[in-house]
Amino acid sequence: MGKLHVLISLACLLAATAFASPAAAPEVMPQGTVDFEAVKAMAAKLAAEPYREPAVIQGDLRKLSYDQYRALRSRPDTALWRDGNSLFHVEFFPAGFIYDRPVQIDVVDKGASTPVAISPDQFDFSDTGLKQPPKDLALAGFRITYPINRPDKFDEVISFLGASYFRAIGRGQVYGASARGLAINTGIGEPEQFPIFRQFWLVKPADGANEVTVWALLDAPDATGAFAFVIRPGGRTVVDTHAFLYMRNDVKLLAIAPLTSMFFAGKMSPPRDDYRPEIHDSDGLYIATGSGERIWRPLSNPSGLAISSFTDTNPRGFGLMQRDRDFEHYQDSGAQLQARPSLWVEPEPNWGDGEVRLVEIPSPAETNDNIVALWVSRWPARKGETKEYKYRLSALDDEAALSPLARVVSTRSGVVPAADGQRRYVVEFAGSALDALAAEQPVSADVSLSSGKLLRTHVERVGTPGRWRVVIDFQPDGRKSVDLRASLALRGQKLTETWAMVWRP
Description:
Beta-galactosidase, Chain A, domain 5; 16-stranded mixed beta sheet; mainly beta
């Protein structure tokens, strides 16, 4: 089953259930002929009705621990579409553990929709600690397998499980960061809503097809949605997403294409009693702005809630990246952190004015997903409105192909020795045009600060050719936070992406 998604924190999990009520769930899409227009119609109809929390399962499966639920396995020989020549098989997750809200899953074959048939015989309960398999099962989600790594083996490429979360991986990758269909009121001090996928439709692909389509109906107290996902596994697994959102109420913060990840410790973290130098699923937020600038913002595990905003018009892309691929920097042979995917969002077409927002939540453990990146439109979401978004989500490990410029490869920080109150950042860039530059070339640094005083900068080539370092010393202004930016240039020509960081007292 691999790594299970765990909500950002216990507080978030409680927030996700704060809207519970004994009311029954709304009726699911009737069986019969169905297409995506019908899913959109159902979402629009649902938005016109009061929100009703879905029922919660009872019984032994709900009492399972994390490890027990993780040990509950689907039997591959019972997978959907295993008979025939389909390149896609589907295995299912029973409702249990924290995934205690059943979802309806249907199969669409030549336009006809029928519910998935499920029985205890499709699962291996031997390592769950249950005395006997439950008689009745409900479904919480599913995973799709595909011969992505070997032609004779079906490996997991995407899973949908929990609220509106889904995870995708490309060839040679292991699960890490997650995507969500929608997030509402994330990090603004209001009760956060965790929209849920109530129903899925798995559209049967043709034999030999290299893509599969999934439709989903989303519901939340303040919004509903219809989603179409076209999934193409490969070196980069691509999920083309088309979403129609229907506002049930005014929404203070409507988060589009939200991404969630874990950052516990990195190069700037204080010493820990741990043999692993770094622990994270992602190490930076990467942005390609509408004007063509590339920005790299290293992630952190802050002491308090931290929110950073990057205002933009028609962004070309943003994502949570696992840039460092060196096993030596992680030393975790079990978790394989160096193989976690980077998740990259490319809007299609223009999304207009808004901001990429980064939310960093303090976490005492690596089990919490404490990083969120999302897009927020400048224009508020009002009751009765319909909003349409299209974007491509890619799970990749070839992030260098996204930019022609040299990239940030490390960020370190500390005090300036023997200088009271002065701070230092050491940022290293590598690749692209830097590879061919001799150490004598007059490479310069363009550095800016939002507050405080820039004291000195120093640029030098270090180590192997192509790796350049800028040392930035500055004096903070009391307890004010400092936004820093830096890039390298040669005779006025920019050589690197922009490094962006916030120093907080």
